[in-house]
Design goal:
It is a single chain. With 303 residues, the protein is α/β, with parallel strands linked by helices. It is built from twelve helices and twelve strands. Strand 3 and strand 4 form a beta hairpin. Helix 8 packs across helix 11.
Amino acid sequence: MIEKTAIIGMGALGLLYADQIASAKGPESVSFVMDRERYEKYEGTVFVCNGQEKTFRMECCQDVSPADLVIVAVKYNGLAGALDTMKNCVGKDTVILSVMNGISSEKIIGERYGHDHLIDTVAQGMDAMKFGNKLTYTKKGELRIGAEDACQQENLARVASYFDEIQMPYTLEEDILHRLWGKFMLNVGVNQTCMAYETNYGGALREGSEANETMLAAMREVIALANAEGIHLTETDLDEYIAILRTLSPEGMPSMRQDGVSRRPSEVEMFAGTVIPMAARHGIPVPANTFLYEKIKKIEASY
């Protein structure tokens, strides 16, 4: 059974899941694990989660023992550091899941700690935003979980049982790679568009606008790339993800736009920065992603 959970990353999703776990199993069941500098800075911080004040257990990575479950919830730029931070959290039977965007985090984590520790996870349908110590959301969304390999099936069963226990919304996916690529398609479109056009979900969804047309074009480029990689994404998948976007608060914004507002480096390398070279290997033109990459890089250069 999963009793002890360690979360690496204290952004919107990290806080969202820490709150869910602590509310269901008690404050000692989950902790944020970080380096000593961050621990000394954030230990005892009071967070405001949808108007309610909360504190969470925090631990220095040098002092922790293995957890039953490790949730990796950092930005792409922080993954290399997270792999070092979580070292003492990973024991023989630890399950690791990543709620990061993109299609590469599981592979990178697996190369360090072994693919037999992982399950594949897609976080979708939430509109959580975090600025400073304040987390707001109107939709919790759900986690889509699945196993790429037979060696991960036991991990999947353990996590599903745990999610049932803590009432975490989730869906078991038979074809988790299809779901990973579908979410990647959405993020390539909406995350980059909202940052490049300095808008929110409502602005990206406004039909006929340049932002909306760019978002859809970038998503269709991912469909072409996925098909070349053997993943059967279609216009039906695009329509389903646009429908999910329409359920979110129109005033909400994805994590990449939140980075822009806070003048932080974005995850553009995980999105267009991944699409462009991969598409080049297949001879697939990706003008929308190229445009977004260049525009976002200019925004970051202006900080």
